[in-house]
Amino acid sequence: MKLLIPSPRSSTRTAAFSLVEVVLAVGIMALGVVTILGLLPHGLEMSRKTANELAETRIADQLIAEMQAMDWALLNTNSDTISANNRFFDDQGLEIDTSNPDFSLLVSYVARVNVPDSDVHLLTNAATSQINNHLRRVTIKLVSAPLPDFDFDNPPPGFPVRSISQLIARTTGAPGA
After folding, report:
1. Which letter does DSSP use for residue 156 in this model?
2. How far apart are CA 120 and CA 98, in angstroms?
3. Is residue 28 part of a domain?
4. Dihedrals φ, ψ of 3, to 5°?
5. Which of 15, 17, 43, 159 could be joined to 21 by an S-S link, Cβ 3.0–4.6 Å?
6. Does residue 5 fall inside a structural domain?
7. Are 140 and 63 in contact, with CB atoms under 8 Å apart?
8. Is 119 helix (H, G, I), strand (E, B) or coil?
């Protein structure tokens, strides 16, 4: 009977990674990390743009809903009063109370609502040439600027003004009122 005695060489060898394998693994991992870090600024920019669009949409929805809920006769007769004042919003699209002493520090968006009388011809029935008394156009000018005294008539360069136009319909009241 023959006894098997392990050789000293085989008993000291343990399972391990070679230096080449470790260097390759670290290189592949570094390439992945660099790629992810390269995409980070693009992702942050897209996140910022999305937040701005969400706030602008919230502002436009709020102002259009206010115009829709307004008394129709008041909307027809006081379009100059409606568009005379700028409205101020924070970075989330929530309106800022102008009585707050620090309100100018909170301003991120400035908006102005306009209910033009000059486009009534667009709201007529072409067959009968009658004005549609149940539709009004509301135009909202919106700028992402922390300037409480922003002038929409002569905007400074570098501040693009976004214009949103919406038709609102009268849902209550007598015809022609």
Report:
1. P
2. 33
3. yes
4. -90, 135
5. 17
6. no
7. yes
8. coil
